[in-house]
Input
Amino acid sequence: MWAAVCKQPSVYVALRILILSALIYGGHARRASASAPGQIAFPWDWSHEHVVFSKPTDSKVLARIRQDPRLMHQGMRRNASSTQASIGIPRSSASFSARLGHIGAPLTIRYATTVHAAPSQSTQPETLPLARRLFRGLQIVVVILGLLLALAFLRRSHWTPSLMTVLAIALFLILTSCGGAGTPTSGPIDTSTSGPVDPSTAGPIDPPSGTQTLSGDWGANIGAASAITAPSSTTAAPVYPAKYSFSANLNPNCTSDYVVFPTGAKGTNTGGNPTASIVAFNELYASQGGGIPAGYCGTTGPSVAWAYLNVTCATSTTTSNDPILSSPVISLDGKKVAWVTSTGKVQILTMGTVGSNGSNVTNPVCVENAPGGTATSPNNAVLNSITLGNATNNPTSGVTLSEVFVDYNSDSAYVGDDDGYLHKITPFFTATGALQEAATPLWQALHGYTVGNLIVDSNGFIEKCTGTVFPGLSGPIQPIWNKTWGGTTLDGTVIWTNQGSGGGWPVYVTGSSTHTDNSELSGPVFDFVSKNIFIGDQHGSLFYVLDPGASTAVGSCANGAALHPCLGTPGTTTGIPAAGGTMKQQMDCSTASPSHTCLVMSNQEGFTDSVIVDSSDGLVITQFSNADNTNASVEQTDTSLGVFRSATLAGQANMSYHTGDFDNTYYSTPASGYYYVCGPDSTGKMTDLYRVSFTNTSGTIALGSTNGTPFQLTTTSKSGNCSPITEIYNTATSTDGLFLSVDNQGVTPTCNSQSCVMSFILGSSMVSAVNASYAGSGSLTGTSGFIVDNVANTTTYPQASSIYFAPIATNLSCGDGTSNTACLIKLTQSGLQ
Output
């Protein structure tokens, strides 16, 4: 029967109309679904400025770097949805988010084939303009009319099949020509025109010229007791804010996106100067003071998301004695923030979701606020902690220079202390209860040991039980340990063999077979390709620790064994000549037995900043304003410290310069890119901006030499210390921007020979424009490090492409009505557009 019905011409034509209408609407629905990406969230902290990924050429290297989520984070920030597609992030990202959140599972991502992809509408958070939404509504109406027309035809058989076919085809052509089913809702903008492209019109825009004043979009009070150190300091590392973006491929989120920054103060909520230990802000993309134009999140500036003392309420409801002077790090899901205090406590805060979590920086609360505490409404925040200890200072070791570096893949964290030990904490963000070090046990009296047992002796070295006589008990008091690596010690009826700095945690980095030196360590940087951790000391020596796990080790242990983790022996001894006197520790580590343990990078200055590691090409880079009492230099080695290359900037100067940064070209073609860094000018009296080139010899990328004419940053015959440099490639405008500050004598008119922030547009020459400057409202002495967030279309999302930093001063007017205090500042990247 149904066959007979379908043979009727009227039914046949109606079915054709229904099918065609379904195809039109279904095709459109599929495209609409494809253009609505899911959430891809990511943090950005100090470590993202110290681990970078240029374009890899080795498939084995590619397989390794895929394990580090920072690869995806870098790709998303540098090239938004163009990179999102090319590194294998699905448009609907639920499955990717699940893989990303599964600690220990390799990330399924592919590296971008190019960094210089054309800007596209999909690089911006996606919402449809009003005209497109109206058209979609019209499209649905037309399709419904087509369905009704098909039904009408069943009743009016005198309408010929051919007429209905023509009407259906006409309907399809109308929808296609109007940009419906046949036109994707998002795609690349034609950038064949020369110059930067305005994403709102797909047309060229003229780059700005001259110097513009960059206004403070908002300033938020972080307390008059703020103790963050200035960039001129040679005894403290620069501190960075940390930024969490709830979704890199949807609209900027006013509630879930946040910036977190420590105050550096001993937090308290009592007395005449209450101050939080650490504070976070949301409603970031706002203007301040009710002015017009309004920001995406309004006109009243940011809101305080939370403000805590870094103590549990069970410990103290009013005061913390553990200042946070390190850069915070954020978990992948954005729910936890971690840091290390100057007193050696590594802490993880799980942010509260109910109750009182601190209304502002001067009204902080303790963590796990209980009834009867400082707040009327208890919070559910959690604070997990561990106090670092070592054989030199047990149970407490201070931390002055180090940050926390997180290996997200294994859920481990590394941190160096002030006595020369490198610690590992695992699990980290997934830990419940108190944090635990991956620590080798201390020696115990009258304890039974068996062959193969490991302990840490009182010198900080690992001892291995290599023999026992029944009953295998240690003595009643600790023996005098043989300090010689490989030497033996008799302890009761147990024989120990000294393994040196290898075989267990913490690793005694600055100790050697002949010396037990103690020196403050810089922040560690973990490389996913070599599985080595790079760390410098306050005497200018660079070390690496092997922690390969199940992977093949890159480099060899300095103790001659293969018991990991271990302190590595550099592949070369040809660095800067080791110094004596106050830097005698360099002579100790560079001549240690059975093998040297360090590569000397400066015999005049220590490491305040961590090194930068390019995991794709195996480059380890640092810089010194006085490398050898003769030159200011940028220096490069490899991941087994097997080479030493130096690019001289100028003669040495008694200045403090911090980490530089690469331009955008470096990430796709390293040999065509540059490393930008501050340094003294040729007279030693001023501060200049330099760039250093790279070479490619048979596929090996190496540091080259200075290139171009240095750009003067300070006024004539005056010098200033530079902050760390931060670069951002803005895909919305195809401009490559650079941010830095000087702590004195800034050269631009806005700087007016004072401390200020400067931004630059990079070009084929050193810089194509000194684009903007910001001097603030008080007597600055430099700034913290800079964190850059989105590269959003600021026409659609005003105030959503910004930088965040803290001026070093406590006499500022923040813009939120507070004065004579310290501020966290947000500035837009508008000076670059």
In short: The longest helix spans residues 9-34. The first strand starts at residue 42 and ends at 44.
